[in-house]
Automatic annotation (TrEMBL):
This is SpoIIIJ-associated protein. Gene3D superfamilies: 3.30.300.20, R3H-like domain. Residues 109-173 form the R3H domain. Residues 7-16 have a biased composition (Low complexity). One of its GO terms (molecular function) is RNA binding.
Length: 173
């Protein structure tokens, strides 16, 4: 066996280990969230995935009721708190820090779409005016989505300020 074959095999094993670790995080998170839904007497199904090197767990519901909206809260504040609690539950079981993402009722998916559009518009404005564009304060999740959209538009961006007033600044070319 050559060194290259050993390295390729080791990388594949590491990738498999990472995937199984992320799947384990998803399973732990799903169990935790199912218990939470039972306690709160709310209906919802848990969907697990691995995307961008992190576990992703979603609570979805077929019902037309607004039950899951309670778990999202105003501007996603309850969702953010539940995500942190779920990450802590995963950490308690695995001993490792989790970067798990939680979505409830498609809130984050819709928010990601809106923020991508905002980032693209800010990039267009910075290109046309030649001036930096400062956006309103955002959560770390929101800033990440905007930074990705700005990069996709071919510009740079940076975050400035202190939490909770940290914001994205889109820089002209």
């Amino acid at each position: 066996m050559t060194d290259t074959q050993r390295e390729t095999g080791a990388a594949a094993a590491e990738g498999t280990d990472t995937m199984s670790r992320l799947e384990q995080e998803g399973e732990i998170a799903a169990d935790y969230l199912e218990g939470l839904l039972d306690i709160a007497d709310l209906d919802g199904d848990i969907d697990m995935d691995v995307e961008a090197d992190r576990a992703s767990v979603s609570i979805i519901s077929d019902s037309t009721s607004r039950d899951l909206q309670k778990l999202v809260g105003r501007d996603g504040e309850v969702l953010e708190a539940l995500q942190e609690l779920t990450r802590l539950a995963v950490n308690r079981e695995t001993g490792d820090r989790s970067r798990l993402m939680l979505d409830i009722g498609g809130f984050r998916a819709r928010k990601r779409e809106e923020l991508s559009e905002l980032g693209a518009k800010a990039a267009d404005e910075a290109k046309s005016t030649g001036e930096p564009v400062k956006l309103d304060p955002m959560t770390p999740f929101e800033r990440k989505v905007v930074h990705d959209a700005v990069a996709a538009a071919g510009l740079r961006s940076e975050s400035e300020g202190e939490e909770p007033q940290r914001r994205v600044v889109v820089l002209p070319a």
